[in-house]
Amino acid sequence: MTEQKKSPDANEAPKKTIKKILIDLANDYFQCWLPALKGDSSKFLGRRLAIAQAEITRIVNDNEILVAANKHLLERVAQLEIGYSQLCDAHDENKRLHHEIGVRQKKHIETCDKNFLNLKGAIEELRGS
Question: How many distinct structural domains can be found in the chain?
């Protein structure tokens, strides 16, 4: 049998590190600016500026991603606050109803006790006569 090597999936693009991406971006910036740079010192400074520009671009992109994530989280927090408020209202209503049931139950017990005492007294009266 022949050994077959597993080919990488189409979705598996070679992963570049952030440093490698920044270097490539800085080189692209530098190549665009190279015709305008005349002396060695300007080329040296152009290289440094290209690196700084690439880092700024990465930071701006990261910031945009974070802003979008933050917006999503704020929307989620707002939904959770609404849900929590609704839960608090339902809990308060539940407590009110539970208290009302307890009050009614107490009144019912008192009424039953009073009726039983009246019946007991009536039975004793009938026995005594």
Answer: 1
DSSP of 27-58, one letter per residue?
HHHHHHHGGG--SHHHHHHHHHHHHHHHHHHH
How many Å apart are CA 73 and CA 25, to the nearest integer? 31
User: Per-residue confidence of the chain (129 residues) as pLDDT tens digits?
Assistant: 455 555 555 455 456 687 787 788 788 877 887 777 777 777 767 777 788 888 888 889 899 999 999 999 999 999 999 999 999 999 999 999 999 999 999 999 999 999 999 999 999 988 876
Q: Give the structural domain span for 81.
A: 18-128
Residue 4 lies inside a defined structural domain of this protein: no
Q: What is the CB-side half-sphere exposure of residue 127 using CA atoms within 13 A?
A: 6
